[in-house]
Design goal:
Elements (H helix, E strand, L loop, with lengths): L7 H14 L17 H15 L5 H5 L18
Length: 81
């Protein structure tokens, strides 16, 4: 079931992810690997998140995106957790 981004952080991460995968309508809880994300795209997503938020989430944080809850905001310096 699609869950839309609930705040500006989730919105930015959803947009970056959709652009990276060339898809639209990726929900907050979607499994990115079910959408076709591979390890090279994981690395690229980390770089995009660092550019957007000024800090890079760990690989563990990105791989936890299987149940997407987009990396915890604290993972890239946006508060929350």
């Amino acid at each position: 079931m699609y869950l839309a981004p609930r705040d500006h952080v989730e919105e930015h991460v959803s947009r970056l992810t959709a652009e990276l995968l060339g898809k639209s309508g990726i929900g907050v809880t979607d499994n990115l690997f079910d959408h076709g994300m591979d390890s090279l795209q994981v690395a690229e997503l980390r770089l995009l998140l660092r550019k957007q938020f000024g800090a890079m989430p760990s690989l563990d944080d990105v791989y936890r995106l299987r149940d997407r809850r987009i990396p915890k905001r604290g993972a890239f310096g946006c508060g929350g957790g």
